[in-house]
Design brief:
alpha+beta, SH3 type barrels, 3 domains, seven-stranded mixed beta sheet, two-stranded antiparallel ribbon, 4 helices
């Protein structure tokens, strides 16, 4: 194999090959989970980056929608000393009102405005059942093009 091109063979079909320039692999292919630096931005700026990501792989951390089972699970799992301690009670109430934190490696399929939702394709879910929604109001961090953006 020459140094300028790298050959990639798909595991299920070894008759087809894809040839890619080494420059593309080095400078244009970014990981959705690894990052070199961190930046703190406002949530609206992070959402703007997410909406403009196009086909780039990204990792988004957000809070899931509240449901009855999550609340009952969190209340039943709380230690008994929580009810007498004000700081522990405050932490429990924050956990219950924000919802469960979720981290997803995905890429953007469709976006619906800055304060709406984005439809993404989850790369860790089985193909065909991997469409998910990310609520822009609950995003806490984004890893995109080797930079991790967190909400101020």
């Amino acid at each position: 194999m020459d140094k300028e091109n790298c050959k990639v063979v798909t595991p299920n079909n070894t008759t087809n090959e894809l040839t890619m320039s080494r420059d593309i692999m080095e400078y244009e292919m970014d990981s959705g989970t690894l990052f070199d630096k961190e930046e703190k931005l406002s949530r609206s700026n992070i959402i703007e980056l997410m909406i403009n990501a196009k086909e780039s792989v990204m990792t988004v951390t957000f809070h899931k929608q509240l449901d009855e089972s999550f609340i009952s699970e969190a209340l039943s799992a709380a230690p008994k000393d929580t009810w007498g301690n004000a700081t522990k009670l405050k932490a429990l109430s924050k956990e219950i009102t924000h919802g469960k934190e979720c981290t997803m490696t995905c890429f953007l399929s469709k976006s619906e405005g800055k304060l709406g939702r984005s439809r993404v394709i989850d790369l860790n879910a089985p193909w065909g059942m991997n469409y998910r929604q990310v609520d822009h109001r609950t995003v806490t961090s984004l890893v995109l093009k080797n930079v991790k953006y967190t909400v101020k």
